[in-house]
Amino acid sequence: MKKIKVLSCLSTLIVMALIFFFSSQNGNESSEISQSFTIEIIRFAVRILHAGGGNETAAVEAVHWFIRKTAHFSIYAVLGISVMITVRVNTAARGAKAWLMTIGFCMLYAVSDEIHQLFSDGRTGRLLDVFIDTCGAAAGTACLVAAVKLRKRINYKFDWWITATVMIMFVIFAFSSQTRESSDTISKAAAGWVAELYNKLFADGDTVITAVQMNYYVRKTAHFMLYCVLGCVSAAMMIKKGGYKVHNAWIIAVAVASVYAASDEFHQSFVDGRGPLVSDVRLDMCGAVTGSTLYAVFYLLAAEIRDRRKISGR
């Protein structure tokens, strides 16, 4: 319990320090950061919606104010959640009292933050921002209370295997959302490192491998390995969380990974410079089969070892 108290206080201080840091930036620095973020959001929306031919500058000007205010709202929502947890674990306050203490603290900090901005070059203090910040804190605490009540109602217990499966799917989705140029930059950097390592260990005379030659193999290996891990954790999730027998868990894990591979390739058809490839789906399926098979074999061997130990213990 002592660790939770310390961590809750520390997280609150970190969020407060982050808000203080952003408020310490001058007007030009703050505007450049928010504008660059706005540009990335607009470009992402254009790729998803296949919109084109518009004026990007005009779009940035139209959305920029909304992005800045959303940033205010979001970071104070995080602060509200952190302060609410801190209040609950470090005081006897509960219910409405804890909520009012949290909102009051966040509102006072928002006021002090706007005053702080008066001393930053090119920045001003606004009552509107205090109102938005306070609303963000209220929304964050409301979400926290709702999440706690929902957790109690469904009696959910955190599970590492479910979390790992979702996280791997998210990583795959994130890589597939990159443009061809961005994806090539990452794979070429990895290919350069692999080629350099290979040449140091195995190159003989003038026979060397370049990053360009290695790039294709690096990209396909990444496909295989990501889906190998997805197949492995999916099989583990089906056995440990779903209670399926090994062979059923294996079939479901391979099916889930295969369907996700097909949907991921379809998703790439909406990304600039990317496109769906049936060969990649086959490669992903091979990775999923390998990963789920490895876990199934491991699980069966571990179960046999446990059974032998029980027999020998008798």
Structure, explained:
The chain is an all-alpha fold. The protein has two domains: 2-154, no CATH class; 160-313, no CATH class. It has helices at 2-24, 27-49, 56-90, 95-117, 127-154, 160-176, 180-202, 211-240, 246-268, 278-313. The longest helix is centred in the C-terminal third of the chain and has 36 residues, at 278-313.
Strand content: under 5%
What is the CA-based Rg, rounded? 26 Å
Count of separate structural domains:
2
* Helicity level: over 70%
Low-confidence stretches: none
Shape: globular
Alpha-carbon distance between the termini?
A: 40 Å
Q: From N to C, what is the helix and strand string?
A: HHHHHHHHHH
Given the helix and strand composition, which structural class is it? mainly alpha
Please, what is the average pLDDT? 82
- Number of separate helices: 10
Number of strands: 0
What keyword list fits this structure?
globular, 10 helices, single chain, mainly alpha
In a few lines, what is going on in this structure?
The protein has 314 residues and is mainly alpha-helical.
